[in-house]
Design goal:
The protein is α/β, with parallel strands linked by helices. It has 4 helices and 6 strands; from the N terminus they run H-E-H-E-H-E-E-E-H-E. The radius of gyration is 35 Å and the shape is elongated.
């Protein structure tokens, strides 16, 4: 047996039905398109979103007006001061360290420190934003609150 003698098994390959090609195609009168009407015409049929003549949902909904700031909103990952108290005294706390200790979820997103709870240790904290109370509590203990640009 040679490679050019190979043939697919009978019935495994069927010829494509060519619609709208006259008598030679085997489907004569309506060319395999069924009866009359919109779907029998070339380019016919209903477009996406057609609801049988009912006003489609994209025209029923009210138009939303005005400027939306959601695309430009800056979202911070929030860490409270009481969670930072678990680190050893004199530790430099950066977003990478917070990520390793699972205090923030995403690495690379900006971090904001809030003044919830109390802090008992001297810490140097680097973050993208601080609340006023957080800055005051860190500095009152002798630590530093450094902003990351």
């Amino acid at each position: 047996m040679e490679i050019h003698e190979l043939k697919p098994t009978k019935g495994s390959i069927t010829r494509k039905h060519r619609v709208g090609r006259g008598h030679g195609s085997g489907s004569v009168k309506t060319s395999g398109r069924g009866g009359k009407g919109q779907t029998a015409r070339s380019g016919g049929g209903k477009g996406p979103g057609f609801e049988g003549g009912q006003t489609p949902w994209y025209r029923r909904l009210p138009k939303l007006k005005g400027f939306k700031n959601a695309r430009f909103k800056k979202t911070f990952q929030i860490v409270s001061l009481q969670k930072l108290d678990f680190f050893q005294e004199g530790t430099l706390i950066e977003p990478d360290l917070l990520f390793k200790n699972r205090l923030i979820r995403k690495q690379g997103d900006p971090v904001k420190i809030l003044g919830n709870g109390e802090i008992t240790k001297v810490l140097t904290v680097k973050a993208h934003a601080f609340s006023k109370t957080a800055q005051e509590k860190i500095s009152s203990r002798g630590g530093k609150a450094e902003l990351i640009q």
